[in-house]
Design brief:
It is a single chain. Helix content is 73%, strand content 2%. The chain starts with a helix and ends in a 15-residue tail after the last helix. Strands 1-2 form a two-stranded antiparallel sheet. The chain has a single domain, classed as Cytochrome C Oxidase, Chain A (Up-down Bundle). The chain is globular, with a radius of gyration of 22 Å. The chain is mainly α and 471 residues long. It binds protoporphyrin IX containing FE (2 copies). One protoporphyrin IX containing FE binds next to helix 2, helix 3, helix 15 and helix 17. The site of one protoporphyrin IX containing FE has 27 residues, from helix 7, helix 13, helix 14 and helix 15.
């Protein structure tokens, strides 16, 4: 029995808490969407767009995204290494400390303490908590890999290691700061250097938190769900090393047309374009693994989430490099196009893979059959439609905004005032808010299905959960 051999309790804990923080992220996302169309929904000083937005982004990336990383990595590492966790006690401490860190972040952000560095807003005492948390996690996973009983390192383990080491380096380097009081610090870097380090961190956080981990999950849960091995292990390894090498140079594509030296911008642009190859290496590997299995898109809900998820990854990694081209950036930078890009990645790619992974895990760690496959299919459509409403409306808004900002009269003056461009955005922001509600409905269906699985699902021996995702 798998239950006897592996530590599953801790996986349950992380699954449960990542879902709680995921719900918070989406709820706050919906609230800030409505605040943008109806400013009277701002309640100063705490419940304003400015305070809630970083709570949304941090709950999304660190509560939901990292929570799922903890749950899935601690599950996968045991199976891929055919051994129990190096230290189950350390993992229990990690769960407790994870929640303490997320709560401390939310409270301080709500009170207005912020470094003002995007995705690294938390002040220095919380930075220290994050470092303790990550080291606890990293040491446990790495020691489990070292004492493994399976000689071969499957591709997911490489992505997991990259994520663990990568996040550690990025967070510590970008977090270098000089504290002046308990909740105030100044960055150790100044001017353009500060911006450069911040976006080296920012885009590599996308690489190490929002790309490598979902790829580790994809490479593990796709073959598990289809019961067919991945198309090519060699292709996965080549894509892995080239992805890791190329991502490190791309951060300055967030700083095109700024005082950052021109050669750094050009380097970032070139490496961003090259990134298409390793990204699509994984997309092709996924698609080719489906050879002869495409019927599973119809009758296996797990496969549906995973393949649509990797498709969004493919689209995201085509769109991203285009945005990194100077002329394209000149048009879309600062517009609503960019949040649309982000949410195709977070709501589409990252969350689709996370939902599939959790659907796979829950029956195994609770020993129950999934309560309802039709509900899982309903959730799939709700989150797909919600996300498309979000992204498509804001892509259109972004192009319109860019067009209006750059429109000129024959005498060289601007055709539109800034207020006029804002007013044009309202219909699209309404569609975004409505899309958010549809997505939220999907998340509620997901949670209901899982709660019912744990409460009422039929008991099943964990080792023999045979139904996989089949309808
Ligand atoms: C080949 C891969 C990718 C490239 C080259 C790329 C490129 C870019 C560029 C150029 C921007 C800046 C847009 C602007 O402000 O003008 C951007 C923003 C962003 N991208 Fe991507 N992208 C890629 C993949 C992804 C993926 C997979 C995600 C996952 C969710 C993602 C999430 C983000 C986020 C969060 C931002 C916003 C940062 C901010 O707050 O300004 N990207 N991307
Ligand atoms: C129903 C679901 C969601 C809704 C309604 C929503 C809504 C929003 C809104 C209104 C913003 C502010 C955009 C702006 O400043 O113009 C935002 C930003 C952001 N959200 Fe979400 N969001 C959702 C899901 C998520 C999830 C699941 C994640 C992460 C896993 C996420 C990550 C982010 C990030 C990184 C930004 C910063 C964007 C930027 O800098 O341009 N969101 N979201």
């Amino acid at each position: 029995m798998q239950q006897a051999r592996y530590d599953t309790d801790i996986v349950r804990g992380f699954v449960n808490w990542s879902i709680v923080w995921g719900l918070v992220a989406v709820l706050v996302g919906v609230i800030v969407s409505f605040q943008m169309v109806n400013p009277s929904l701002n309640f100063p000083p705490y419940f304003t767009f400015g305070r809630l937005r970083p709570i949304h982004t941090n709950a999304g990336i660190y509560g939901w995204g990292v929570g799922v990383i903890f749950a899935t990595f601690l599950y996968m590492v045991q199976r891929l290494c055919r051994t129990r966790l190096w230290s189950p006690k350390l993992a229990r401490f990690q769960l407790w400390f994870f929640n303490a860190t997320i709560i401390a972040s939310a409270v301080t952000l709500l009170l207005g303490y912020t470094t003002s560095k995007e995705y690294h807003e938390m002040e220095w005492p919380i930075d220290i908590m994050v470092v303790i948390l990550w080291v606890t996690f990293g040491v446990n996973v790495i020691m489990t890999i070292i004492k493994r009983r399976e000689e071969r390192m499957y591709i997911s383990l490489w992505y997991m290691l990259a994520s663990i080491i990568g996040v550690a380096i990025l967070y510590v380097v970008n977090g270098a700061e000089v504290p002046v009081s308990l909740f105030k610090s100044y960055s150790a870097y100044a001017g353009t250097n500060d911006a450069n380090v911040e976006w080296w961190f920012g885009h590599n956080a996308v690489a190490m938190a929002l790309t490598a981990p979902p790829l580790a999950m994809f490479y593990y849960f796709l073959p598990k769900s289809t019961r067919v091995p991945i198309y090519s292990h060699r292709l996965s390894i080549i894509s892995f090393w080239s992805l890791i090498f190329m991502y490190l140079w791309t951060g300055a594509h967030h700083l095109l047309w700024t005082p950052v030296p021109d050669w750094i911008q050009t380097l970032a642009m070139a490496f961003s374009l090259m990134l298409i190859a390793p990204s699509w290496g994984s997309v092709f590997n996924g698609y080719l693994s489906m050879n002869g299995q495409w019927h599973q898109m119809r009758d296996n809900y797990l496969v549906k989430f995973l393949i649509v998820g990797i498709t969004f990854y493919g689209l995201q990694t085509l769109q991203g490099p285009m945005q990194a081209i100077r002329t394209f950036s000149a048009f879309i930078h600062y517009t609503d196009w960019v949040p649309a890009h982000i949410h195709m990645g977070t709501m589409g790619w990252v969350s689709m893979i996370a939902f599939a992974s959790i659907y796979y895990l829950v029956p195994r760690v609770y020993g129950r059959e999934l309560y309802s496959i039709p509900l899982a299919n309903l959730q799939f459509w709700l989150i797909l439609v919600g996300q498309l409403m979000w992204s498509i409306s804001l892509w259109i808004a972004g192009v319109l905004q860019a067009g209006m900002w750059t429109a000129m009269n024959p005498d060289g003056s601007l055709t539109y005032t800034f207020m006029e461009t804002m007013v044009e955005m309202y219909p699209y922001w309404w569609i975004r808010a409505a899309g958010g509600l549809v997505y939220l409905a999907g998340v509620i269906v997901f949670i209901y299905n899982l709660v019912m699985t744990v409460r009422k699902g039929e008991d099943v021996a964990v080792a023999t959960v045979a139904a996989e995702g089949r309808a």
